[in-house]
Amino acid sequence: MDRIVTALAYDKKVRVFIALSTNTVNEAIRLHRLNLMSAMALGRLLTVTAIMSYMTQSESIAVQVSSEGPMKGVLAISDEKGKVKGYVTNNDYTTYGENITSLGQLLMPGKLMISRDFGLKEPYTGITRLITGEIAEDIARYYMDSEQTPTACALGTYFDDKGKLLSAGGYIIQVLPGTEDRILDEIEQRVSLTGNISKLIYDLETPENLLNFLFSDRNPEITGTHGIAFKCSCSKEKILDKLLTIDKEQLNEVAKQQSTIEAVCPYCNSHYHYHSKDILKIIE
Ligand SMILES: [Zn+2]
Question: Are residues 149 and 265 located together in one domain of the fold?
Answer without folding.
Answer: no
